[in-house]
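Re: export button greyed out
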Amino acid sequence: MKTARIMLFLVAVGALSLMVPAATNADSVKIGMHAPQTGFAAADGNSAILGAQLAVEQANASGGVNGRQIELIVYDDQATPKESVPAATKLASSDRVDAAISGSYSGATRAAADVFQSYKIPYISAYAVHPGITRTGDYVFRSSFVGEVQGRAGAKLIGERLGVKKVSVLTLKNDFGKSLVAGFTEAAPLFGVDIISEYEYSIKDRQFGPVIAKIKDDNPEAIYATGYFFTAGPFVSQLRAAGVDALVIGQEGYDSQKFIEIAGKAANGVIITTSLDRDSDNAETVDFIRRFEAKAGYKVDMVAASGHTAVKALVEAMRKAGSTERDAVRRMLHEVSIEASTGTIAFNTLGEVKKDAQVQIVRDGEWRHHSVISDSVLLAPPDQ
Amino acid sequence: MLFLDLFVEGLVQGSIYALIAIGLTLVYGLLRILHVAHAGMFTLGGYLSVWATNASGSFVLSLLAAALAAGVAGILVYRLCYRPILHRPPHVALIASIGLYVGMEELFRLFFGPYGMSHTDPPLSETVGFFSMRLKYAEIAIMAGAVALISALAVVVNKTRLGMAWRATVAEPQMALSCGINNDRIRDLIFFIGSALAALAGAMVALVNNYAEPTMGAVPAYKALAIIVLAGLGDVGGTLLAALALGVIESFGTIYLGKALDRDAIAFAFMIVVLMLRPRGIFGKG
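Workaround output, generated via the alternate export path:
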């Protein structure tokens, strides 16, 4: 009995030791990263890390930064602020990273942004959407959409592109869902979209029976449903099983092959706004998708492309600045324009990017190009 | 008919809760342990059934395999985790149980990967219409299965020698032992049955959502605790009724109270109201 417990303990210690990063090299350029490796968001964290690692490998193969190799130091934040703050503090004070990225969700990223700002370390949020993140300070950047901006793109997609007016809204009760719906609701009247009903759900929900029964009763033409692949997959599958055939419009949280695996045939016809165009003929995007799928062994997703983009932006700024001095990198980030897998990235005064929204649709079990929304007024990120 | 739709959706959800809560209430009745790690058996059942269905093509066989494997895992949990600390105060077992559950979540992640698993070709996914409703065969199977299994269990507990032995072990373990009842064997059996039922619930949830994930037991872990308290601890029939009632209340509450109260908060608000009126639970005696 005692031996069994000792064995179990040793196995646990062994498993933990795998997570401790290898000894760091004093000469290297250090980029810190926090992302969920355990907990409910571990799948997204895993993709973001693989994307970031790929960017580091590519940068090192082409000479690193001024001849110095780049090292990525990753800590688990479980997608919660209570883990991201110690992770960020450790990266800043004990690893003394030159710059950092977030491969995590909004809650964790907002909290960590404060830490990096106070240490004056350039920090890029790869895919967290909350508007408060970049307002933390001048060292904080975001290489993806603000939630509100993507929500506005959704309203334009539904009202103008698809010509659908009667819409039910499903809000995921976290920073992601709420900021998307705020943008959607704000822009809906501009495109004649009438929101006939609104529902909320928690990130733990996987069974949507009651909400679907009510939506069926409301009989909308489209459903603007916020969520991640692990909530949207069950939702769409249950929706179609209940006989509701309204259009489903999602966002970048759906953007994973896993969504299609979960929803099965019900996924076909679902349309989302996102940052990655899988049918792009942009050489950078094509190259990224090929390399990522070879490295990861599964199909590319938006989160992976975002992790890759964030690292690429930092490396580019360090190379252009000719140093890893933090203030120089911060200033250079405002000047560089980078061709990345998620589009052309240039940061505004607040540290936000202005770019087109990609629209993807599921056809025959694959994410495919639907259209692009480019509207520089509607999609303008906040600049103060 | 929105009313009917909501009512039936509530029954489906309640049936799942019932299958999970039964094991918990049996274990509590027997050992006075709040067996939080029970939700790990639910997750184990979900993963094993998806994996085995994809590998073998037979859902029925996979259900049996998942129930059997989780049942054996349940016995191991009792023997390796709880039995050595039975003489300690109850909170020791509770803490061990929570630790075990957290450990199991991470083991699932290490073993099956962070992305969760889905059926490549989900069985029972055809639908059938009743009045205005459409239900998956899987949802009908959940309701029928839960009621049949739990009724059968109630008969076993109340009418058979085995049930008598179980009740004797609950009431007077020492006396039962003197009468030739093997306490350990009864406890093994209870952990086996409870864990197997939780695994079946996990398998059915993984089927309806077409998704098994490491954290899928997190909500059932505490929802089931609310149900067994509601039902009056240790009551099999009462647990079924309380679970169904909670499912239906949540279903209507999600729609009509959703703005004010979270779905999960509804369960606990209901529990608080019931306990204020009936401190020993709806079906608790005394």
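Chain B has a mean pLDDT of 90. The button fix ships in the next patch.
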